[in-house]
């Protein structure tokens, strides 16, 4: 038997992000503990995306290295039995031992939600950033297009991350709105630390008229973090899907 | 100055419904307390709909009988300052002292949400009933149409309620689905106790093949509660809007 790939959804509200760390409850740790209980032995788990504190997921990908006689279609039910309600295994399938959820990922889709209204809605509190001032959606749509393509996104990367290159390719960056809920949908071959949240914060600056849409080109060219907008709050961000070959 | 009409949204998860009662925290009580603090005097509040424990609202209507010098457009901000995050005043306007939120209501719209998938999603846990077996949407759509019109809905009313008549008129009853989320949208001139939840439970019975769509006619005709389906869980229900002349 090879390794097991899991598709995981979670509400990140109560967790200190994905990755196991000391003195903090993380999603990786909860899944690790659930698997330990289920399989009653040492297991190794590897996640595709190290989501931050408060960030949500519908399609996080996790690889479990474990030998088990549980049929693959029963694995989600078996692990879910040991997980809290805010973390759910949605699917499981067998993968070869060479499959790596991060290195083999072809592209990822994130969504950033902004509820743009005079007053917040309790129903949206957990999964959307509330912004009460009026936003010019047409300008935001126009600005979003400038992110598409291969660029050095150094200006859209929080300091403190060590990566070989800050060049990434964005395949899709789209702003849609329905009933005052603005959704920024972005797909790319990889994302820098806080990149989607900084793009969201910058698009909010465009929407409120602080900067013009084509100024996005200048920010990208500057490679200067201080030229881009604020890092928008974590709760608006959801990892939607990770695609593989 | 006349009375003040408020449009209220709430997440009913933590509350024992709308109406003030002893030894339980209700939404009416939270709004009453917030208004007491804000206006520092006796006030009277009347809600349009006595939503049950766990039921949500986007458009509950409340009338406040109070004299105040606070401008009407500032009222929502002022009351919200004293409310918890899961209750929000979305709008306020002046109404005549003869306006009654319940007696003057022309029709109400409710939505009942069913997330129909193999596994639940944490993001939907609070506002949708999770149902894992496959449901035949076309049959549910067909069945929904039989509720439209003026009928005696005694079979769709929980016992324990004392009403003069169990006749109500339903103007719209529609089933839609998007990404495995089934939404039953229903508009009528009034609803009996648990009526929408029993209709939802009965439509689930149609979807899973327990009864045929046209059996809805027989259930209505029977005026027998035991012929209809189970009362679907409260968390799937949201009071969307109350319309007035």
TrEMBL record, chains A, B:
Belongs to the tRNA pseudouridine synthase TruA family. The keyword Translocase does not apply. InterPro entries: PsdUridine_synth_cat_dom_sf (IPR020103), PsdUridine_synth_TruA (IPR001406), PsdUridine_synth_TruA_a/b_dom (IPR020097), PsdUridine_synth_TruA_C (IPR020095), TruA/RsuA/RluB/E/F_N (IPR020094). Substrate binds at residue 110. This is tRNA pseudouridine synthase A. It holds the Pfam family PseudoU_synth_1. Homodimer. It comes from Vallitalea guaymasensis. It is an enzyme of class 5 (isomerase). Residues 7-104, 143-245 form the Pseudouridine synthase I TruA alpha/beta domain. Keywords: Isomerase, tRNA processing. It catalyses: uridine(38/39/40) in tRNA = pseudouridine(38/39/40) in tRNA. GO terms for molecular function: RNA binding; tRNA pseudouridine(38-40) synthase activity. The active site is at residue 52. Its EC number is 5.4.99.12. One of its GO terms (biological process) is tRNA pseudouridine synthesis. The gene is truA.
């Amino acid at each position: 038997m090879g390794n097991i790939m899991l598709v995981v959804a979670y509400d990140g509200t109560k967790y200190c992000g994905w990755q196991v760390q000391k003195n903090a409850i993380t999603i990786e740790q909860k899944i690790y503990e659930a698997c330990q209980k289920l399989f009653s032995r040492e297991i190794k788990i590897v996640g595709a995306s190290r989501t931050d504190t408060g960030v949500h997921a519908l399609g996080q990908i996790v690889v479990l290295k474990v030998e088990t006689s549980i049929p693959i279609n029963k694995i989600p039910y078996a692990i879910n039995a040991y997980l809290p309600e805010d973390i759910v295994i949605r699917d499981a399938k067998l993968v070869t031992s060479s499959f790596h959820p991060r290195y083999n990922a072809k592209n990822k889709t994130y969504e950033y939600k902004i509820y743009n209204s005079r007053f917040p809605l309790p129903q949206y509190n957990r999964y959307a950033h509330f912004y009460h001032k009026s936003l010019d959606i047409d300008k935001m749509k126009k600005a979003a297009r400038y992110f598409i393509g291969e660029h050095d996104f150094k200006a859209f990367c929080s300091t403190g991350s060590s990566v070989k290159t800050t060049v990434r390719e964005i395949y899709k960056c789209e702003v849609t709105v329905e009933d005052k809920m603005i959704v920024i949908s972005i797909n790319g071959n990889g994302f820098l630390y806080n990149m989607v949240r900084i793009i969201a914060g910058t698009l909010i600056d465009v929407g409120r008229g602080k900067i013009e849409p084509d100024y996005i080109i200048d920010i990208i060219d500057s490679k200067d973090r201080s030229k881009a907008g604020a890092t928008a709050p974590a709760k608006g961000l959801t990892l939607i899907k990770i695609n593989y070959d």
